Amino acid sequence: MRRIILALALLQLPISLQAQGVMDGLSPGTRSQLKKMFAMATAKDLPTDLMWKQVAEGQSKGVAEGQILAETSRMMGQLEAARSALLRVGRKEVPDQDVSLGACVLSRGATPEQLETMAGKAAGRRPLAVALKVVTTLVDQGLPLDHALQQVGARLDAGATDEQLLALKNELRLGMGRARN
Fold first, then answer.
1. Is residue 177 very low, low, confident or very high in pLDDT (cuts 50, 70, 90)?
2. How many angstroms separate the CA atoms of 88 and 117, rounded?
3. Which of 53, 122, 124, 131 is most buried, judging by how many CB atoms fall within 10 Å of its CB?
4. Which is nearest to 116 in space by CA: 146, 93, 96, 86?
């Protein structure tokens, strides 16, 4: 109930200065829809940084307002799916950073089930931010998603530290470089 009241209050408050700057060039109707979307995300306890990033990127690239709304809504859905997947493995709380990075993994093609499986390998033992960041970095470097998830998951199964997970980025990057030569 408290979250609903907070969300309704957010609809009545002026947008923060940072948000106002991002929304300056948008029509009143689009701004209104975005305010409602952000209030819903806040009510669902979702971090909104990636949603704001979608709006800012759309604005800077001159993307149509309808597309900005669609992409922002898509990101909200990925944040919600990530949060749900991370909670299903028995975590009582999920840090915003884990939710945001989980959404990034989903945006690269992972399914909520794959995210849940990976989270289950570290359930209750540690935050997932480093593992999730390693997966997104590996995929961004050209490693297939399934292989990145398998490699990071195997390291989590073996009890790898965050430092060992970070080293995996360099190990696989070097291996990929050799394979291309």
1. low
2. 10
3. 131
4. 86
List the alpha helices (DSSP H) in 89-144.
96-107, 112-120, 129-140
CB 134 within 8 A of CB 168: yes
**Alpha carbons 43 and 13: distance in angstroms, whole number:** 15
Would you state the pLDDT for residue 97?
Answer: 94
Confirm if 119 and 132 have CB atoms less than 8 A apart.
Answer: no
3-state secondary structure (DSSP) of residue 115: helix
Question: What are the tokens at 14?
Answer: 């002026």
Residue 48's contacts (CB-CB under 8 Å, 6 or more residues apart) are 38, 41, 42
Quote the tokens at residue 37: 């979307």
- In whole angstroms, give the CA distance from residue 58 to residue 88: 32
Predicted TM-score of the model (pTM): 0.82
